[in-house]
């Protein structure tokens, strides 16, 4: 029997499991079963709260996509992660430091219960995105489309368009490209003003989500690098609004997280 909490950040939904004791181990197939919205619980990502291996770091933040693949970053999930720890009285510290596969994140719960996430430093080096090209550039040509690309613990491709109503075929072509050997999250950004954008994101291993925190950060960073945006930008996502700040070094994401319900599930009874 697995006990879980269902949460969402702007419609990007998560199942969170307390695995501090390390007694929960799920296979790829089990995660896929849990993620099924008809036969399981349903979620975009599964988040595990684990003990950190680093001295002075509060927790380890482990993330799995709906297809069972492990990923290194999820900004919307990080906000829910912080609120979960607070509600479950797992720590009374604020801010919290959490270990991820790509470094340490700092999570601050604000007075209005929004959470500010220090997402770290973006990486533009193609080999570390990873993106198959020899030279770093502000934009690249991928499958005939001009994209910006960077990593914020996970790879992103960003397209700037006047109309983002029809994105499915373009997202599929870019995600299927050999240029991104580990796959890629594809963001479609419409610039409304220097302080506001509209964004849709198709995530690898998930599909389009109502919100993507790291995708919001990637889009704003790309827009700032091209001189289209200011350093603090409202990001309008299908699930709601988030704020992204980028000072040229570190990027910060602020937004809400919501509890939906708690429950338990017996994996042995899940359909095969």
Care to describe what's here?
There is one protein chain. This protein has 272 residues and is α+β, with helices and mostly antiparallel strands. Helices cover 15% and strands 40% of the residues. The protein has 4 helices and 18 strands. The protein has an 18-stranded mixed sheet that branches. Strand 3 and strand 4 form a beta hairpin. It is globular. The model has no long low-confidence stretch (mean pLDDT 95).
List its salient traits.
18-stranded mixed sheet, Diaminopimelate Epimerase, Chain A, domain 1, alpha+beta, 2 domains, 272 residues, 4 helices, 18 strands
Can you lay out the helices and strands and say which pair or pack?
Elements: E1 2-9, E2 12-18, H1 28-35, E3 45-50, E4 59-65, E5 70-71, H2 75-87, E6 96-100, E7 103-109, E8 115-120, E9 140-142, E10 145-151, E11 155-160, H3 168-175, E12 185-193, E13 196-203, E14 207-209, H4 213-225, E15 232-237, E16 240-246, E17 251-255, E18 258-265
Parallel strand pairs: 2-3, 4-6, 11-12, 13-15
Antiparallel strand pairs: 1-2, 1-18, 3-4, 4-5, 6-7, 7-8, 8-17, 9-10, 10-11, 12-13, 13-14, 15-16, 16-17
Name of the CATH superfamily of the largest domain:
Diaminopimelate Epimerase, Chain A, domain 1
Give the overall shape, derived from the CA principal axes: globular
Arithmetic mean pLDDT: 95
CATH topology of the largest domain: Diaminopimelate Epimerase, Chain A, domain 1
| Biggest beta-sheet profile | 18 strands, mixed
Radius of gyration: 18 Å
Q: Give the class-level CATH name of the largest domain.
A: Alpha Beta
How much of the sequence is in beta strands?
35-45%
Unreliable parts: none
Overall structural domain count: 2
Number of helices: 4
CATH-defined architecture of the largest domain: Roll
């Amino acid at each position: 029997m697995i006990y879980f909490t269902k949460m969402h950040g702007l419609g990007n939904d998560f199942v969170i499991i307390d695995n501090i004791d390390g007694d929960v181990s799920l296979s790829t197939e089990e995660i896929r079963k849990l993620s099924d919205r008809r036969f399981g619980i349903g979620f975009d990502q599964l988040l595990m709260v684990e003990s950190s291996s680093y001295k002075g770091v509060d927790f380890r933040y482990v993330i799995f996509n709906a297809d069972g693949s492990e990923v290194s970053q999820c900004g919307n999930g990080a906000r829910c992660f912080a609120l979960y720890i607070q509600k479950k009285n797992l720590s009374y510290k604020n801010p919290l430091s959490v270990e991820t596969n790509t470094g340490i994140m700092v999570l601050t719960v604000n007075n209005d219960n929004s959470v500010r996430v220090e997402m770290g430093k973006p990486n533009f080096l193609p080999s570390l995105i990873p993106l198959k090209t020899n030279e770093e550039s502000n934009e690249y040509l991928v499958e005939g489309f001009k994209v910006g690309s960077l990593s914020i613990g996970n790879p992103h491709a960003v397209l700037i368009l006047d109309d983002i109503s029809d994105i499915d075929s373009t997202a599929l072509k870019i995600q299927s490209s050999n240029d991104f050997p580990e796959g890629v999250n594809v963001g479609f950004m419409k610039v409304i003003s220097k302080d506001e954008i509209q964004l849709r994101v198709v995530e690898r291993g998930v599909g389009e989500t109502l919100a993507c925190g790291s995708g919001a950060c990637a889009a704003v960073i790309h827009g700032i690098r091209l001189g289209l945006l200011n350093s603090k930008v409202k990001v309008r996502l299908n699930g709601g609004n988030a704020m992204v700040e980028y000072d040229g070094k570190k990027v910060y994401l602020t937004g809400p997280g919501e509890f939906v319900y708690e429950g338990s599930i017996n994996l042995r009874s899940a359909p095969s």
